[in-house]
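Recap quiz, item 2
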Amino acid sequence: MRIELRDTPFEPLAELARYQDGLATLRGRYGATACFIGTMRDFNEGEAVCGMYLEHYPGMTERELEKLVAEALERYGLLEALVIHRVGAIEPNQPIVLVAVWSAHRAAAFDGCRQIMEELKSRAPFWKRETLVETETSRWVARNTPG
Amino acid sequence: MRIELRDTPFEPLAELARYQDGLATLRGRYGATACFIGTMRDFNEGEAVCGMYLEHYPGMTERELEKLVAEALERYGLLEALVIHRVGAIEPNQPIVLVAVWSAHRAAAFDGCRQIMEELKSRAPFWKRETLVETETSRWVARNTPG
Amino acid sequence: MTIKIKYFASLREQLGRAEDEYPAGPGLTVADLWTRLWPDRPLPPNTLAAVNQEYADLGRLLADGDEVAFFPPVTGG
Amino acid sequence: MTIKIKYFASLREQLGRAEDEYPAGPGLTVADLWTRLWPDRPLPPNTLAAVNQEYADLGRLLADGDEVAFFPPVTGG
């Protein structure tokens, strides 16, 4: 498994392709790949948003991600997992997070990918501060909505 | 939405990237992309498999896919969907199906992507015939397992 | 003035043919059509039917020009 | 012989500081630590705590060298 934090924009599909190319020993063993990409929208809670800053807790964020991905691998018997998450300044339409998992069968892939996203949303120490278009002020996002 | 059948190998991540590049009017509106890629394994029901042939019902297969994707778009309020499915001769480790959906929020994306796959598995007229390594004979896959 | 019939996958192989034609007639259902075509062969369990490329019950009444298909459970994806 | 404290996000801004230090002592819990550092400020509701980069209860006993963090609900992904 690989967990990465990035402080500059990344291309989820290119990352995914590159990572999968490296999974030579799994060729022919995985029948299912599920992935999720979270992208910054230009609106939130009814207001236009023009920018975001993602704060994190260096050290703990990586540890928590590693734990929650390992839990999903174990629970669903996944073969592999990749998580990339942005930190720092983000603009609308830029990717925030990529989660991808590989497994023999589809149910495990769907369940595992979703569990990683839900656990990431509820446990991984990231905090979003978004800048509103109208007032040019920024506000902390209060909490994640349940999935 | 786009539904495609392909009789030659395709690259799901490149297709996905290309399709998403064309979604200019959705930029900033989607916060969630969920995708699933089904890949041919080199084993099934405990036996080594070296090849597969995917038969379909030209006309009905496309119609059924269009219906089931439209149902998911409607039910979950998805913004867009892309489905590509192979037909013809397939080798282990080659992609069989790509499903990708775009939505504002993650729950709809996860649910919609999964519903499309489950409906496709249970309704879309495709039939797999796989060739076994040991006996060099081929057999029809009897039925899809529930997801 | 005919109905066109298609068979797919393992059913096509068991029957040894991919297509048939049969004269349309009043009151003919999908089940009737099978029995007329294959009087010595009960419809295999789990066989699915479609009329004009949409899933149909075996009791569905057929009309001139309909395309009927019989096939085993689907295994795509 | 100290405990290192970190604050994040909106809590960091409300407090006007990102880090603190406090002398370790016997029987000191995470909740005690907050009260000693901020006697006039009750811990904001929903505040989360971590000790040595793992989530911890407020009743968790602290030891010399521990790193304690206080932060609001997380909003990543």
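The longest strand of chain B covers residues 47-56.
The two ends of chain B are 24 Å apart (CA to CA).
End of item.
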